[in-house]
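Human:
Care to share another protein and its fold?

Assistant:
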Amino acid sequence: ESTHIPLSKIQDVTVRRSLFDRLIGIGTIVVDSAGLSNRVPEIHVDRPVEISRRILGESAARAPQETGKN
């Protein structure tokens, strides 16, 4: 199953990590979106802080462009 959220709809990305997760560099991210189903299921990834920053950075960079298309 996959979920697609336009970058302009992303409101927040939360990173969850236990102490053990931090030690080995893994974690869980949860993407909050406007409208849609509000929350994407938890995604387990390596380097979750880096990934969450990239998602939020891309979302902020593209939001004005995507908003102009509507």
Observations:
- The mean pLDDT is 83.
